Amino acid sequence: MAPDPNIAGRSMAVGLRALNRFASSGAIDRLGLRDPVVSLLHQASKTTGRTAARAGRTFAAAQRLSRPARQPSARSSDLFDLTPSDEQLMLRDSTRDFALARVRPVAESADADCAAPPNLLAQANELGLSMVGVPEELGGAVQERSATTTVLMSEALAQGDMGIAVACLAPAAVSTAISLWGDEQQQATYLPEFVGESVPAAALAVMEPGPLFNPFALSTTARQAGGGYVLDGVKALVPRAADSELFVIAADLPGDGPSLFIVEPGTAGISIEAEPAMGIRAAATGRLILEEVQLPATALLGGGERSVFTECIQLGRLAWSALAVGTGQATLAYVSDYVKERKAFGEPIANRQAVAFTVANMAIELDGLRLTTYRAAGLVDQGKPFSREVALARRLCTDRAMTIGSDGVQMLGGHGFVKEHPVERWYRDLRAAGLMEGALLV
Amino acid sequence: MINLELPRKLGGLVAQSHQVATEIFRPNSRKYDTAEHEYPKELDMLAAVIDGMNESGALGGAGAGTVGSGGNGAPPKGEGGNRNGSNMASLLGLIELCWGDVGLLLAMPRQGLGQAAIAAVANPEQLARFGGKWAAMAITEPEAGSDSAAIRTTAKLDGDEYVLNGEKIYVTSGDRAELVVVWASLDRSQGRAAIKSFVVERDNPGLKLDRLEHKLGIRASDTANFFLQDCRVPKENLLGDPEIAPKGGFSGVMQTFDNTRPLVAGMAVGVARACLEATREQLESAGIEIDYDLPPALQSAAAAEFIAMEADWEAARLLTLQAAWMADNKKPNSLQASMAKAKAGRVGTDLALRCVALCGATGYAEGELLEKWARDAKILDLFEGTQQIQLLIVARQLLGKTSAELK
């Protein structure tokens, strides 16, 4: 697929539009944020590539607000409607253009390298992925909080490659978590870096090794000591673990249960091991080993509230469903073309019901998953309960999306099993979507 | 803007339909399942009430059981041109009524499928003569089921009348209706283009009842088989264009189904919800807890299966709403209508059977309605196009195949 020369321009336009909205916002002047931000942007634009090494970046509070900023929810419509807003269309389409023209061509090598190309990750930041979940007065790109917008962008990105999508979206999970649940100090300390041009690698670490993982009964513990916390445990399949400059880590806090902690990787007692997996290899998954990691009291995110942690898990599952929709769509499109081209017994195999019906079922189940995912996201945006709907999307993601991945390989026969075609990678990636916890947030 | 919740303005319709289902359908479910072919007289009064509500517009401009006519009349306008109109209203009403009883819904006076065909292709004069009457639809023949282009019933013009000859089977409410819309060929050598539909008065002496079927389910709804023997109808009873056009004629007839497929999908969604609700009650009384946040593998097998069933049900429901929403907004929805019908049709049967199994003897015995719903649900994966026909339609559209290429 030849890269579309307009893609860069369009992607940049989105980034600039976000920047323009930010710059024209009265809030930054009111809050005295213009100078620090302008200098930060100036700095970022001069820098080629990332200079800060892991743990080299210092997160320091720029200007603290008197209360934490939160994005308001989008207005909700009373009518059933499947039409995205103009803003959603723009963000989704630019992301999809980027995914197909820039991400897809490098997906195979990124899978082999277990890393996404750094320049691609930098380009992805232009799409504003880590800004859409940040309140406007803190530099965010979008006025209203919209899980639906994030779902649409995630789905679009995963049409390029799920592993690279995870690598691109991992920092957004951290910025969204701090936007949603951080206090004013935490927001002031960490969020400015996520709305700049040099977005730090960051990861939300929830998974742990072992069968039957239950995110609500964590083995990683946080005990209170010396006015702060001490973390012990192992987190598994953490995206971009080795180059992350900030973590949000889930650990069990005695008395409060599962909780989230902001952890800077320079803290003593943290070691990282590569943990490549069956799929999403471009996300450079790693294991995080926490031994007597001492954290200040200010590291606790969301006050250890059970509702915060539950929401974090639910929003993570929803994000994975969105990725599964995107990868499922890629699979469906690829297979549809293939079965029309491939001939057997003197005609295209698409002329056989056994093949054609399989493709029809892929499309039907994909659309079912997509609509179920959208409904759950809409409920998030409307502030209504969404636990059940997320669980249903998750279930379809585990069962039906995996079947789409498996059928994708099946329809290509032996050709599907070799790396000449991407369907074997999508098969490996789709297994992740129904089992991963955390790492992403919508 | 994306919102997949049901509109508040249709809440009244949903509540009314649910009340009908609870107060009239459910209490009579077992009675007419047992007394097959007995006329459910309780429906007469209800039908009169529904007619009244239709006329007064109390049902959002759409009869609870009326099949959609693709937005005949102006659907209410919503924000930004988005509409939740008569297709959505009909669908939501049907889901509730079929939560009550699919068989009784199909037996409702004056709500037959034939009325949809009349609404879709009749001219104003025909609408005036036939509108509001109870019309059944006669398509299927012993040798022509899914392949409706292969029908053998013939219609020959003789003076001012057409003379119909042939055999029709599986005519829902065929014996109870006032009119039967009969599909017949003007010239069998010209294939599907020559197939037309004709309105036959039930009391026409040429329309002879052969028998009423004894069925697996939906026993409250009579299924009639007819012989047409020199059955003469005025030539004005041919619906639509009497000319044999090489293209478009048959597809016009088939368009009726684009509007009715989402409704049949909705029937499956309704009966499947009844199964899920009853099963959940049974499971909870047995001490099973269903936790949506806990990974299913950490819950009881029954709870995990329940969540999996609900997930498929939700997918079917949303696919169905999507198809109806597209019809309301004048978006071509043939693909989505078949996707909804395929998913909901199989989910209805699959869920109902799994619910019976989960509930064991309670599910299987006639003391509860679960076993009946599992029998009723199967028809919804058969009529208005079987599962396999829907997959053919979906596949042909997705892959750009003609019916000659993908048979």
Please tell me about this protein's structure:
- The complex is a heterodimer of chains A (442) and B (407).
- In chain A, the strands form three sheets. Chain A has a four-stranded mixed beta sheet with strand order 1-4-5-8, covered by helices on one side. Chain A has a four-stranded antiparallel beta sheet with strand order 2-3-7-6, with no helix packed on it.
- The longest helix of chain A has 36 residues.
- In chain A, strand 9 and strand 10 form a beta hairpin.
- The two termini of chain A are 30 Å apart.
- Chain A has 442 residues and is α+β, with helices and mostly antiparallel strands.
- Helices cover 50% and strands 13% of the residues of chain A.
- With 407 residues, chain B is α+β, with helices and mostly antiparallel strands.
- In chain B, helix 3 crosses helix 7, helix 3 packs antiparallel against helix 8 and helix 9 packs antiparallel against helix 11.
- Classes of the chains: A alpha+beta (442), B alpha+beta (407).
- The interface between A and B is large, with 60 and 53 residues.
SSE blueprint:
The complex is a heterodimer of chains A (442) and B (407).
Chain A: H1 5-24, H2 26-30, H3 34-46, H4 86-113, H5 118-126, H6 147-158, H7 162-181, H8 184-194, E1 202-205, E2 221-225, E3 228-238, E4 246-253, E5 257-263, E6 270-274, E7 286-295, E8 300-301, H9 306-341, E9 343-344, E10 347-348, H10 353-381, H11 387-411, H12 414-417, H13 423-433
Parallel strand pairs in A: 1-4
Antiparallel strand pairs in A: 2-3, 3-7, 4-5, 5-8, 6-7, 9-10
Chain B: H1 11-34, H2 42-56, H3 86-100, H4 102-106, H5 113-121, H6 124-130, E1 135-138, E2 154-158, E3 161-172, E4 179-185, E5 195-201, E6 207-212, E7 223-234, E8 238-239, H7 249-285, H8 301-328, H9 334-364, H10 370-377, H11 387-399
Parallel strand pairs in B: 1-4
Antiparallel strand pairs in B: 2-3, 3-7, 4-5, 5-8, 6-7
Helix pairs in contact in B: 1-3, 3-7, 3-8, 5-7, 7-8, 7-9, 7-10, 8-9, 9-10, 9-11
